[in-house]
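I'll show a typical protein example:
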Amino acid sequence: MNNGEVVSVTAGAASFSHIMPKIMCVVGEWMNMAEKSLNNFIKTMPLSVPMSIAAVGTVASVLTGQKQLHTLCGIVWLGTSVLHSWQHSNKMKSDALKVVEKMKIMDFVNIPTSKIDLFIRSVEISSYIPGRVRLYSKTLIGNRSKCDEVLDYLNNYTELDEVQVNEVSGSILIKYTPAVLHGNIELTKVEEYIKNHVRRK
């Protein structure tokens, strides 16, 4: 190889290395566009017809006893159903939340929905009359730091007029004005729970 050929090869390599990043950039942009187009196509692709055909095929294959056709239709039906669910996942979540809220499922299954709700369920409800609640917890007896923690926590609720925590007996006395407390939905739910679970009314 003579000097002219070496110079030509070197110049070609330099030119290629200069243009290669531009090619890669264009290819990358094209791949991003293709991915977005594919995602958009999948999200907007109508699936009701293939789902219906697969469903009918699955039922028909059972009636005719064709196992291979039944398996194929079942796979297509499952695949299109999963894809359809993915397409409408946001709407399904929104609808599910609406159903939970409308039916008050959390209240029905009696699951705590807030920190104070959970706290009330962890103590014994000794007595209740509107405006005055006495709670009891063995974990508070002789535990000054825990008593202070409970006192500080409950005092964060401005709807409560007075909170007393007794380290000796483990009792918590809460006084409040019902009309004021009922302005707080969270505390109103807690009061309802207390009414239904008090040991001594």
Observations:
- The chain is about 65% helix and 10% strand.
